Amino acid sequence: MSNMDMSHMDMDMGDGHIMHMGNLKRKFWISLILTIPVVLMSPMMGMTLPFQWIFPGSDWIVAILGTILFFYGGAPFFSGAKAELQMKRPAMMTLISMGVGVAYIYSIYAVIANNLFHVTPTVNNFFWELSTLIVIMLLGHWIEMNTVMNAGSAVEALGKLLPQDAHVVDDQGNTTDIQLSDLQVGQTVAIRAGEQVPADALILDGSSDVNESLVTGESKAVRKTVGDQVIGGSVNGTGTITAKVTGTGDSGYLAQVMKLIKDAQNSKSKSENLADRVAGWLFYAALFAGILAFIVWLTVADLAVALPVAVAVFVIACPHALGLAVPLVVSRSTALAAQNGLLIRNRNAMEQVKQINFALMDKTGTLTMGEFKVNHLVSFDTQHSEDEVLSLMASLEKGSSHPLATGILTAAAGKDLTFTAATDTRQETGMGQFGTIAGTTYGVVSVNYLDQHQLAYDHDQFTKFAAEGNSISYLVAGDTVLGLVAQGDQIKPAAATLVASLKKQGITPVMLTGDNQETAAKVAASVGIDDVQARLLPEDKERLVQQYQKDGKVLFIGDGVNDAPSLARADIGIAIGSGTDVAIESADIILVSSDPADVIQFLDLARATHRKMTENLWWGAGYNLIAIPLAAGVLAPIGFMLNPMVGAVVMSLSTIIVAINAMTLKIKTVA
């Protein structure tokens, strides 16, 4: 992952209002500098502290500094509140804005009343509360952004798969480099060895091995020749090809994947976190209590009594502790996760763990190692020994990086077999690899090829090997089946533990694979999964995520570009750290070590984090829930009104408590 300068990042400050990271950091430091003299010269809730310095004219200095703080430091919260109110969903930004707005207006009134009209008794101002609230909230949002802001953009990562220029060939055979944005459907492009394919295109001349991990999610070199389609973003091998552009811009495959990711991320970003919900409830509670208190006290007393009481209710509702309750837990949680190989890119994912119903996971690379080993080698032809069958298959697969090809090449090398690369090789998607060796055309094919061409083979033998969890490849020459290789992938040691843990937590595990049903069933049975989706095409995965989401919340674990839309679409997306950059950028959580046991750690940490968040929110909001009615005078009939000084002390204590509670968060170690 790239190391990005956090000072250039943005954050959603409230239902769509974007706050620039650099601006937020600068606002915090400037606001802190302005707050120091305000705290030194302004009483807290009417109480003059021992360290404070009040002198003739200090009220006016405080008023000037408080005004700058109000308009400068409070600006992002006012913009966020505007967005929340436009969506008719008041939350944290609205609560903050109400508190500082009332505090500022009443404080200006107090300064004027005390210093120009010399009213008695003097009117208390709330510049101390206003300044500290703004600084604490800016600090909370800075902490939150600094710890959980996305390390990059999935869409930007996809864009990097495409080159900047394309080599366009005209009718006379002349080549000109143009900007990729100027490339049009129907133009002819030259794609040189090692270059990225600039757009979806049809090969007109030449042949080459093309790495299509973009499609498969795994490293796979596919032989491409005249008449074959190449996808923009895939990587050309050693050959040079000329191709006609069939799709670019919005019509290209890559653009369609980018659109899926954007749509999925946009739909998921609308979720509302717990802190905002609590702040929304407090906003309504404070608004109702303040207005009711004003009306009641205006009725039983007069304006001189009713106004200070109402203002006290609104100011006491200021969420000092609430503003730090979640960011401090997030900061601690993110640090613990990073120390244990978990990178958290979306904090909301942590809050949704308790609601997860299904865990969809890819087979290869997630539950298995993705490293195939030859378990069975069989020759059906007396003219070819088993070693000769393996040698011919290795000749066809030489130069390919597909996991199955790698297994064959490794087995051949282990036997010290000599072989040379076949000529005139070609790849038939989903069927096999073909080429010429010593004048004879051979093919390494799947069982689908045998069925389609009605070639005879031992069905019982296939079922037996497949039931063992093997992927089976056949060697054919014309209509003759010469032999087979059965390869098994190794199951990761922690895979069964992960599945058992998911079931224990009430989460249904689901395995996704493009492999045959028999192999899928074998692997699933080995790790304890009952729900298996096999023979899947890459585009099927996101559809399945949406299908399962109809019945509950979905966690998705995968790698590869083809997994990116599914990772973004799922309620929680977990990317294998060894996967592609695009998959990683689309995920909420990244497993650095690619160990399934890390999923268990994440789930445990997420639950502990949510518990700490809830505790802190109760501490932060609990102060408000008790102080608001007391400040409104609910116990006035028995002679008790909340002393502002007591309210200030309790407010400070609640802030300290949430900080200490956040630091006690720990992560469990999976044995």
UniProtKB/TrEMBL annotation:
It comes from the Bacteria. InterPro entries: ATPase_P-typ_cyto_dom_N, ATPase_P-typ_P_site, ATPase_P-typ_TM_dom_sf, ATPase_P-typ_transduc_dom_A_sf, ATPase_P-type_domA, HAD-like_sf, HAD_sf, P-typ_ATPase_IB. Residues 161-261 form the P-type ATPase A domain. It is a multi-pass membrane protein. Signal peptide: none annotated. It catalyses: Cu(+)(in) + ATP + H2O = Cu(+)(out) + ADP + phosphate + H(+). This is P-type Cu(+) transporter. It comes from Levilactobacillus fuyuanensis.
